[in-house]
Design brief:
single chain; Endonuclease III, domain 1; 2 strands
């Protein structure tokens, strides 16, 4: 049996491996999927990605599969969400997701066009040989974070935005020995 070389952060958890292999770092251009990834990264702040990934299906049910139009109308459901043991029950994060859906819905451009314009619509390829070399944020994420906050987004600090950029494929932070490194 051939061993597949993945980024070291993935470990041997099957769900983490599937997420890494099928999603992480792949350029995403779907508004709903981008909103989902941003929302999950917001929920992840201060927690492990594995925790969020294990609750992903519960988040999808709770937030109407991250349908932007439905999610923006959920202000009257905050208390129900706070009692949902299947999700991370953080009032500020829940309200941020609802707020961000409103911001995205009210944009003149698509969320895809909005987010990808920050990097001239071309993924930034890094060449990290080890996970320890990957930063938690960078100057580009700081600039995007500042602009998103000006545009009304909540809970979009530079670390959350850098993680979102990685997840959505705006940056390719696959380690150079990972089997997906050259594919993106």
């Amino acid at each position: 049996m051939t061993h597949i070389q993945r980024c070291t952060w993935v470990g041997d958890n099957a769900l983490m491996q599937k997420y890494h292999d099928d999603e992480w770092g792949r350029p995403c251009h779907d508004d709903r999927e981008l909103f989902e990834l941003l929302s999950l990264e917001i929920m992840q702040a201060g927690l492990s990605w594995k925790t969020v990934l294990n609750k992903r299906n519960n988040f999808r049910k709770a937030f109407n599969n991250f349908d932007i139009t439905k999610a923006m109308k959920m202000n009257d459901q905050v208390e129900d969400l706070m009692s949902n043991v299947g999700i991370i029950r953080n009032r500020l994060k829940i309200k941020a997701i609802i707020n961000n859906a409103k911001v995205i819905h009210n944009m003149k451009a698509s969320f895809n066009d909005y987010i990808w314009q920050f990097i001239d619509n071309k993924p930034i390829n890094h060449h990290h040989t080890n996970h320890s070399q990957i930063p938690s944020t960078d100057q580009k994420a700081k600039l995007i974070s500042q602009q998103m906050k000006k545009d009304g987004f909540k809970f979009t600090g530079p670390v959350t935005i850098y993680s979102f950029m990685q997840a959505a494929g705006l940056v390719n932070d696959h380690e150079t020995n990972c089997f997906l490194y050259k594919k993106h």
